[in-house]
Structure formats: C-alpha cells, structure tokens
Amino acid sequence: MAQSEWMQDPGWKFLRQSDEEKLQEQATRKFDNKTHTWIPDPEEGFLIAAIAVDETDSLSVTLPNGTQKKYTRDQCQEINPAKFEKTEDMSNLTMLNEASVLHNLRQRYRNMMIYTYSGLFCVFVNPYKMLPIYTDSVAKMYVNRRRSEMPPHLFAVADEAFRNMISEHENQSMLITGESGAGKTENTKKVISYFAMIGAGGQAVGGGGQASEIDTKKKSENSLENQIVQANPAIEAFGNGATVRNYNSSRFGKFIRIHFDKRGKLVGGDIEHYLLEKSRVIKQAPGERSYHIFYQMMTQKKLRDRFSLTDNIRDYNFVSQAEITVPCMDDKEEFKATNTAFDVMGFSDFEKDELYKTCAAIMFMGNMKFKQKPRDEQAEIDGMDAPEKAARLLGVNVDLFIHALCAPKIKVGNEWVTKAQNVQQVDWGVGALSKAIYARVFTWLINRCNETLTGHLEDAAHYIGVLDIAGFEIFNRNSFEQLWINFVNEKLQQFFNHHMFVLEQEEYRREGIEWTFIDFGLDLQACIELIEKPLGIISMLDEECIVPKATDMTYVDKLTNQHLGKHPNFVKAKPPKGKEAHAHFAIVHYAGTVRYNAEQWLDKNKDPLNDSAVACLKAGGNPEALVCKIWSDYMTDVDREAAAARGKTETGGKKKGKSASFMTVSTMYRESLNSLMTMLHTTHPHFIRCIIPNEKKTSGLIEAPLVLNQLTCNGVLEGIRICRKGFPNRMCYDEFRYRYAILAADEANDKDTKVASIKMLDKMLKTQLLIADHFRSGATKVFFRAGVLARLEEARDEAIAKFILYFQAAIRARLALDDYASKIQQIDAAGIIQENVRSWVVVRKWPWFRLYAKLKPLLKGMKSNAEIEALEKRCKEIEAAHKIEEETRKRLEDELRAKKEECADTQAALDRERAAIERRNKEIEELNASLRKEQEKLEEADKKQKDLEKQRERERKEAEEKERKLGAELEQEKNRAQAEAEVYKEKLKTAEEAAQKGERTRKAQEKELTDMANQLEAARQKNDRQENERNKLAEQLEKAENEAIVERKQRDEMQKANKKLEAQLRAMKEQMELMQKDRSNSDVDLKRRDEEISILKSKALSDANLIAKLQSTLRALIARIEELEEDLDAQSRARNRIEKHRNELQAQLDSINEQCTEAKGQLTAQVHLNNTRATEMAELHREIERKSLTHEAYVADLCSMQYLTISQLRNLSQQAATIENEASQLLDIRRAQTLGGALTRDNTVTIYDENGSHL
What we know:
With 1255 residues, this protein is α+β, with helices and mostly antiparallel strands. It contains 33 helices and 23 strands. Strand 14 and strand 15 (415-418) form a beta hairpin. Helix 30 runs parallel beside helix 33 (1167-1227) and helix 31 runs antiparallel to helix 33 (1167-1227). It is elongated, with a radius of gyration of 54 Å. ATP binds at residues 178-185.
C-alpha cells in the first residue's frame, strides 16, 4: 500500500495512478472484447474496431473513421478486460498479444509512467524530458521493498538485485539493452548511483530502518562511491558520440562490476568494455558526430595553443565530416565535467595531458595528405605541416614516421624488403593506425579507471554487474558491426529464454504442478550455430582471411554454397525496398530476418596494421609517454625476430602480420563474448529493456511501428511467446475467491480459501465455464493459460449485470408502489375535502351553526385558567429540575477538578518517565558509542594482528631463508676447508719427503702449514659466529611467537569483552523496549483522559449555557404570563361593561315596548300624532338595531382576541415542553414526564340540530 507521504511526492504521479482515477478510466472505457477487436494498421500499429458481423472465419468491422472492412480472425487480436487497463506487469494480461502490449505501453506513456514490467523484463520508454522520479525521496521508497509492493521502476529492480546478493550470497547482474537513444546509459548511471548510495552505508538493507542509509550526504570527492559514479563521465567523453537518434550515444558496450563485502558495503569496482566502434574515429555518417572528447578539447584555448590546434574544427578532416555541434550540449561545460571526473578518479596532470595530446595527434593524422609519384606506384607526402605536428605530439621522428607509412618494411622469408604503397593504401594505413591508437587509448583509460576503483577488492564477497550494450539492430545497410551486435543479442536472448523458463518451471515445481521441462534456449541454437560453429559465418570468414587473393565476393559464394537451402536460418536476401541497401545474404534471427552486406568484411576482420609504423611509435623517445605504453604488448615482426635471436619464445603478445588469421577481430570478439557469457552464467540476472518512442525526440508521442520493432528486437514479444506456452496468469487463492466468488457463491463460503477455491473451480468445470487443461491448482496459487482470465472476467461481468438488473427492478417496483399509494391518498383526500366543503356550504347559513361558531371561542376561553395553572405547575417543575441540574453541575465541576489534579499528577509522572527514558537513551547511546569504539579497537587489533602475523610470517620466512643460506655457506666453507686440508696434507707429505732437500724448503713449508692452520681456525670462528647468529634468530622467532600468543590472548579477551558489551546492549535494548511500551501505554492513557476531560468540559459548558438559556426563557415566560393575565383581566372587565350596557339597552327596549302597548288606544284617536310617533319609533328601532350590531361585533372581536391569547399561551406551553425535552436529553439525567392532555385541545367541530342529533 502506498504511504500517504509517498503520494505527496511530486514523482509519485509518474509512478502509479490513484485507485479513483483507475476506476474512473475503467468505467468510461467504451469498448470490450465482445463488441470490439484489434485490427492491424500501418501507422498506428493496431486500431480498435467495432464488430459489425461475426462470421466463422472472418469479422466485418467498422473502423474509427466509419468505414467497414473485412478481416480474417488471424488478423484480429482480442482485447483485454477493463481491469487490465494500464497494468503494471504486462505478463498478467490475459490476452497476451502485440496489440495489447502496445496499447498498454501507449496508455502508460501518455501519463508519463515510463517503467512497465513484462514478466522478468522491466521495459523503459524514453520520456525525452526530466521527470522527478530519480530523487533521493523516490529512492527511499524502494529501499528494502519487494518488487510487487511498489510501482515499476529501475530502483525496484536494483534493490531486488542488492537484496538477493545479500540474502542468497550470489553474484547479480543487470542487463540494460536497447537501441541508440533509448536511454541505456542514463539508466546505467542511475542504477550505479543507487548502488553507490546504498553501499556507502556499509550495511545490508535488511531492516525496516535501513531506508535512512541512503539519505543524501555530501561525500568527499575522493570517496570510492563518488569515484564509481564519476567513472562514467570520464569514459563517456572517449566512448560516446552523437547519432541521428541520440546525441549522447554510447558506441561501446560495458560491463561494470560493483563489488560489496559480506555486510553489503561498497569495496570497489571494475569495468570491462566490448565492441568499441573504432570506425567513428575517422568516419561519420550524415547527422552524426565523432567522439565528444575531440570537440570538448577545441573549446579550451590553452589546449589549442599547447597542441598547435586552430580555432576552427572544420580544419580537421577526421572529426568534421558531418555535425560538429550537438543541441542541448555545451562542449565547454562538458569538458569541465570530464576534467573534474579525471581529478576525482586520481588522474595526474601528466596522464590527462597525454590523453589530450594523443587525441590531438589523431586529429592531425587526419590532415596528412599524400600524392602519387610520377610514373611510379609509390606514394609520397604532400605537405609537412600536419605530419610534423602529429609526429611531435606522438614523440616520434617525422621522417621515419612518414617513411614507415609510405614504404613499410615487411619480412619475406628470412629477408626484409620495402613495400611500395600507393595513395589509397597509405590512406588506409593512416586510418587503420588512427583507429588502433584510439582503441588502445580507450583500453588504457578503462584499465586506469579500474586501478582507481580497485579499492579493497580483497574484502569483496560478491558483486553486482551492470551490462550496458547495444540492442538488436536492423538498419537499411547492415554490415560486419551489425552482425556482431546481433550475435551478442542472440546469445543474450538465449540466456534470457533459458533463465526465464527455468524460473517459471521452478515455480511450477514448487507449487506442485506437473509440467514437462522445456528449454526454450534451444529455439535460438540453430541461428547461434550458424554464426559461430565450424563452417559457420565467422569461422569461414576467418578462414577466408588467410586465403591468398580472397575477396568479399568469394566469401559470399562459399557461404551461399555451404548454407543456402541447407540451413533454415540462412536465406537469400530479398531485393531492396525504398532506402534499403543491396544485400548479399540474410539471416533469420529471433527478432526478424536481417539482410547483410558483406563489403569490406575481410578488411574489417583482419584489421591490418602497418608494423613499421607501430615499431616507429614503440621506439618513441619517452618510455613513460602514453603512446609507448599502449603499444607495449604489441609484438611486431621486428620484436619477434629480436626475441627469436635472444632465444625467447613468443608468449603473451598479440600476433600480427602474417599471423593475423590466429587473432582476427572476430576471434577477439568471440573470446570477449565467451568471457561475458561465462560471467553472466555465474550471476542471477535482471533485465532492463529500453525503448525509443519516436524518431522526433518528442515527449508523449508513440510511433507504433518503431516501438513494435524494438519490442521484437529486445525480446519482449519473444518472452510473451514463451509465456503463452505455459500458465502466464496466476492468482493467490485469497484473491481468486474474493474476485470470482459471485460465479460460485455457495462453494466460496468455506473458511479455508484453498478448499473454497478448488470447489469453485470444480463448479466452473461442471458448468463448462472452464476446461481442465486451462488451469492448474498449486500449493498457494491458481495458474491459468493465456485468455482464460478474460472469459472469467466476462462471466463475472454477466453475473454482476444480472444482479444489478434484479436490484434495479426491485427498486423500480418499490418506487412504483410508493407512487401508487401516494396517488390513492391524493384521490381519497380530494373526496374528503369535497365532502367537508359541501357540508360547510349546507350549514354555513344555519342560525344554530352561526350561534355555535360564535360561542365556541367563548367556551375555550373558559379553560384559560386551567391552562395558566398548568403553566405555573410546569414552571415549578422546571425550577426543580434547574436546582437538580445545578447540583449535578457542581458535582461534575468537583469531578472535573479532581480529574484535572489526577491528570496533572499523571503528566508529572509521565514527564518523570520521559526524563528517565531520555537518561536511558543517553546511556544506551553512550554504550553504543563505547561498543563502536571497542569494535573499532577490536577491528584495529585484528588488523594489527593480521599485520603482525604477516610480518611474523615474513620474518620467519626470512629467518628460514637466511638460516638456509647460512647453512649452505657453512657447508660450503666446511667442504672447502676439508678440501684445502686434504691438499695441505698432500703438500705436507710431499714436503716431508722433500725435507731432506734443504732446511730452507722445510721452513717455508712449515710457514705455509702455519698459515693454513690459521685459515682453518678463522673458518671455524666464522662458523661459530654464524651458529650464534642462527641461535639469535631462533630466539627472535620464539619471542615473536610468544608475542603473537599474547596478542591472541588479548584478542580473545577483547572478544569476550565485546560479547559482554553486546549482552549488556541487548539487555538495555530490552529495557528500552519495555520502557517504550510503558511510555506508549501511558501516552494512550493520557490521551484517553485528556479526551474525557475535554468531553466533560464541553458538556459542562453546554450544560451551563443550557441552564442560562432555560433561566432566561423561564423569566421571559413568567413575564409574558403576567402580561397575558393583565390583558385577560382588562378584557374581562371590558366584557362585563359591555354586558352591563347591553342589559341597560335591553331594559330600555322593554320599557319602550310597554309604553308602545299602552299608547295604542291613544294613537287611534290621534292619527297624526301616531304617524309621527310611528316614524320616531322606526328610527328608534333602527338605532337600537345598529347599536346591537355594533355590540355583537365588539363581542366577537373580544372573543377572537381571547382565542388568540389562548393560542399564544398554548404555543408558549409547547415551547416550554420542547426546551424541557432538550434539557433532559442533553443532561441524560431523566426523561420528562409525559404531559397530560391539559395542553392539547380537540379542534373538531360537532354540530347538533334542535333535537340534539348530529348533523
């Protein structure tokens, strides 16, 4: 799982998509395997077309542009399910085909996810821009992480190699291949930097905290890890050039070995190189440039002045045949980087000057002009300026040098003859000599770098090798160089095939799957044997090089007669198409059929050199000069003749001249290739394949034909072909049951995932969803053949679709029923409303209903006193509850105060524990420091012990040698003395016999005898002295042995002390772990208590706020009740006054009626008076009626006011109940008792007729 801090890294989005983006893309994909298919396209590689008509052997499809076309099924390729979109490992694709691989790479490259796995391969697509995925923060992510845990990356492969080396104690190798411009060199730099950073820590990446070991630190310039990193710029200046595809293309292959000790610490490195492109020194194709060092030198005025170079590089033919500048590359800055790299690598100023001087000499050699002598086949020099400058820089005599070039001496039999050469031959000789000088300078440079990188190789336990070599090449014109590059890649591909399926079949065996072993490396054996075996292409080329008057065409004829029609991999070249050059034959490689042009193959294979010119260079004045050093191992005919004259045999030297057939270029290449393959077979390999996305160097653009060609040449598609033979898709039982349980739900219920998965597979077999040959059940995984998972995905999608359809149908049914019920209720409601309206229309003018409508508010108003009493009772209850809440609040405050005190005590205790832990940590650090010091002392003592043992061994050997010599001398002296004694005895006898001849003769003999006795005594004394010296040496040896015994005892004591310290350290670590555990528990407890305190605080605060709110609300309610009571009293008084006034008016009306009755008799007599009084009476009646109406309206207004007041009281009562409920819920003390029906009122109106029955 990705950690959160990783996802914040700016480089993470270029490594892996988020799950949300992935699901969104999968959901928006508009094609699948049922309705669409891949069809071939010359420009896009493959297009997605919709299937219009599915026939038996063909498909009619609709292209993206709307046109319809018919394709056979073999031309169409299946599409993978959406879950495999932008998959990180293409070997997991259930449809393993070219279209799916290309589509996956294209989609990932559009998002700049440039690394993708394909089984054992890690495929890299050049982004043509800088991405933040090589930073130290990204490198930390991959340290000590399994490859399956992390997104694809070069660092993941590198870290896997490092961990394998440490854990399995096996050498590792990383094979980085690809075409020029694909990014091989840059990846090599990054992986070397990664190893240098890890190895600098001195410990294996085996623990969880090891990620800190690769933190960026400023290293000293002369540190070994920095030298390993800086070796690249130094070598690239001499080995890299500009090509059409790549401005910094490595024109050689290299195998960089980085050595580590048993603990994983970097101890040294070395470099081996292969197949240097020497022809680039003297010839460049259009759009290309020679090696960078020539152009870097021309930016330095000091070098130009010192070597007599001009300002214009166009003045030098060898290096100005095409481009002289490179975009985005500053040669002046590059020279500074090269010079700095030389300084870091420990090159002296003399060595650097010699390198630059030799390069300048090659530039001048390119300007040497020759002309033909009149009427002669002999060439002569045309201008001495360039030869003189070249000879001065090479340190040779110019006249001898020119003579060696124009008229070299060759040995014919036992005689030396001068060979006349024409201009073309001399030009060829100068070019060959220039190439040879540069190649040997490059070899010397590699060896010199190896001297610096040696470090402490005696401590090396294992190494990781990084192979950076050109990939398979198919050009318009393929020559001798392409044959060897393709042959190397053929061998590497065979190595990969063998390794890949060996690992595959080992996993099958580990999982317990029956499988017949297949060696896929044998698939390429026929092509390899065609090239390297006897009577093969290389063997016949070497033979042809020693045949007199042999030509390239005779070689082609022999090849054709030997192999055409007899070997399946040797075919006749097809006629050229477009820009393709003429070819003489073709070879069927694993990556395709390559047409080869055999022109100049014999010359390139022989690589002839002018022995006289080489001898002239070897005879230079300064033996320390670089030119002399690089030719020191070359044996010319003169050297061999001189060695023969001295009676020496030719050993160790490279045979040239007439012995060229035994050391041709092919022979040297074959030896180095065999050495490389032998080395690789002793390592565990890891494969990086680099891809050029387009020829325009444009970021984000994929040219499908170019990428497909490289996938073929790099062996990615070959690896996929091998995967199809076995079971490429595999899933753990847990994952299988989780994903496909919907296809066998009952069987997936078993607790054991393996048993459940096997039951699921059995059911799929019964339902014919699977065939027995399509899968295998292993110990931990289920293995599937290619394409099976796609069918399972389709079945799973169908099952999910059925379930979703059923679910949607149920939801739609529920929604429809709810809608139906709602409409029924609406219909019923309309009928009820209509019925009520009709009833109201009937009774609205009925007097009794009108009377009821007027009296009902008055009836309700009579109950206001009861409501007020209920409110007072409610207020008392609220006050009592408030008192209880106040007491609870005080109690909680006391508890909070106690908790705070307890928390303070806990905090103090925690502080004391932290201080104790800090003291313990300091003690542990001090113990660690002392332990490190003891370890350093122990290591120093071990080193001294080893040095002392070596010295003692050396002294012992010297003493033994000296004793042996002394013994031999003594023996010789003794023998010589005995011989002299015998002689003297003979002389004495003779002298005794001749004593009679004279006294003088006797005295002389006596004197001689005395002298001889003295000499014998001196010899004895000398023997005694030598014996004494021998005894002294024996005493010294014994003393040294005693000292060694004492030191060994001291070493044992130190080891015991070290073990004791380690035990103490372990005990301290255990104590520290216990303290840390207690500390973590205390932290958890403290955090829990803090949370409780914060909850209590917030609760108390909310309680206080609620109580204050309730108090204010209660006061407002009481005030409002008082106001309402006053209003009610005023209304009652007003109603009484109105009632009294009405009674008075009614009394007046009654009295008037009585007066009218009494006056009837009088009115009969007085008509006029009666009319007048009638009129007054009518007016009086109208006035009474008006007053009565006014009085009724006033009474109705009072009743409505009373009703509104009672409604407000009811609302206030409801608010009080709501507040009480909220208070009871927040405090959790008690739930309010349910209010009685006093506060609720039935609003139903019941109408009665005159008889009391319902209307």
